[in-house]
Amino acid sequence: MDWLGPEEWQAVALSLKVAFWATLLSLPFGVLAAHALARRDFPGKALLNGLIHLPLILPPVVTGYLLLVTFGVRGPVGSLLQPLGIVFAFRWTGAALAAAVMGFPLMVRAIRLSFEAVDPKLEQAAATLGASRLWVFLTVTLPLILPGVLAGAVLAFAKAMGEFGATITFVSNIPGQTQTLPSAIYAFLQVPGGEASALRLVAVSVVLAMGALIASEVLARRVQQRVTGA
Amino acid sequence: MSLSLQITHAQGDFTLDCAFDAPPGITVLFGRSGSGKTTLVNAVAGLLRPQAGRIEIDGRPVFDAARGLFLPPHKRRLGYVFQEGRLFPHLSVRQNLLYGRWFAPKGARREDLSRVVEMLGIGPLLDRRPAALSGGEKQRVAIGRALLASPGLILADEPLAALDEARKSEILPYFERLRGEVPILYVSHSAAEVARLATTVVVLDKGRVVRQGPAAEVLADPSVTPVGARAAGALLEAVVARHHADGLTELDAGGQPLFLPLLRQAPGARLRIRIAAHDVLLSRARPEGLSALNILPGVVHEVRPGEGPGAIVSLDTPAGRMLARVTQRSTQALGLEAGVACHAVIKSVAVAPEDVGG
Predict the structure, then answer these.
(1) Residue to substitute from A114, A122, A129, interface B, most B β-carbons within 10 A
(2) CATH number of B3-219
(3) Distances (CA, A) of B304 to B13, B328, B331
(4) Domains in chain A, start-ordered, CATH in brackets?
């Protein structure tokens, strides 16, 4: 990628790292949350649903501020994790946390839709053949929803690549540490002569986002094909 | 007993309140839709937890409300053949067939894959996906999948209902073959299926057992017509006597000859034949100069008027209890009442080509 300058490349690489970890670590929680919302009835379901989707609606700066208050060095969770060596504030790990929180609603939504496409009667059939709940999930449900899980992961990854508001509020805009792709674009636009760099990063952003949307569409269609066996 | 249960379960304004014991063979739960058949089967499968009662499969309690015992479906060692097949779309036919065996306890009796595949004629399908199968093929694979789980009891909930007549007659023989192998609880609202398959019939109506007993006995009772008088018919047992050169097979039904179009069974084979009530004419005198070949002497057991102009007459013949559907005008004109001698003229006979056994 010769056409990207070292500073620009650094931002893209950091964004990839942040998005990768944000997606990977939130995926199990995404599957659990989607399963709970699609298949279970419990008190507080509406509240959980609201909490998950909140970052989609809240101003990102509010989400970032709440993360800072909670996971900052003096925050209730941040101060507990600090002795364990886990620090979020002004680190790339914080950028990953912010990206995970912001991408979570998209991820849960895609996975939840694929859960809903699976006929529970198939899971009942598996149970009558001797499969325990866990085995039913591993041998019937999960294989059927796998493309949907991937679609959710791709969406969350793309969202994480582009997250700006919550990230800059929570972990600021430190080159090499927390300066992700959108933060870099923002920074380049603040200095004279930075437009060319900004434009190149904008191109990268558009291609990544478009690719992710197409990929998740294709994967979601695969769920439909899988559950009907076509 | 392969199955013994007593359960009560209320759902809205419907209450299921049933108790019966099923001996080995095929026990058919017979009743119109809404009579609670599927609810009952789901309770046996563990897909539904009844509010009260107990269920024993193969002598093993799987549900006992009084003791708080409820085994989940996967611990009940069942094979369930659903109406819609419910094959796993992401697995091949072979993987579908072997799915249950994977979870069977290690020491359990192992059903042989090649034997089941051969019995069901599904060898050429093994590497296909369920979506590439016809309705009849899907149900055969579903039967195989249930069988290969080496179950103590097979549940079949109207497994033929989604198939056309040709496919139904393709599948029925497989259930007949299973009759001697595994106990089966079979749900149906088709009198023809009951006649062909049932060892024992349990008639359900509005969530209650209204009649139960051996198939021939229950079907010969004109009050048991859960699907209407149109479907009434009696079950007779007969032995193939000889094949005639003019394309007819002579059966011996309790000493009476019955002639049918040529059958493939060898002389000596035992058959179960169903004679629908609307295929039987009655005559006080032995009819002469009639084209019908099958005329059985009998004595009227009961005349039961229907809601319309018809009536069901049950009569005892040397071949067994038979039913005839005639008009009430005819019963009066002929003076039919209990104890009156008359002749049954049979227009056609449906044969279930398997021994009664079970």
Answers:
(1) A129
(2) 3.40.50.300
(3) 32, 9, 10
(4) 6-228 (1.10.3720.10)
CATH number of this structure's domain B233-352:
2.40.50.100
Q: State which residue of chain B sits closest to A133, comparing Cα positions.
A: B74
How many whole angstroms separate alpha carbon B198 and alpha carbon B24? 11
pLDDT digits (tens, 9 = 90+) for A188-210: 999 898 888 899 999 999 998 89
The dihedral sign for the CA sequence B59, B63, B69, B73: positive
B28 in Cβ contact with B35 (< 8 Å): no
Enumerate residue ranges in chain B where pLDDT < 70: 1, 107-109, 222-231, 348-358
Is A229 in contact with B130 (Cβ distance < 8 A)? yes
The answer to whether B82 contacts A121, with C-beta atoms less than 8 Å apart, is yes
Q: Rounded distance, CA B169 to CA B163, Å?
A: 10
Task: Return d(Cα A53, Cα A20) in angstroms, integer.
Answer: 21
Q: Where are the domains of chain B?
A: 3-219, 233-352
Residue of B nearest to A142 (CA): B90
Are B89 and A228 a contacting pair at CB < 8 A? yes
User: How far apart are the CA of A141 and the nearest CA of chain B, in angstroms?
Assistant: 10
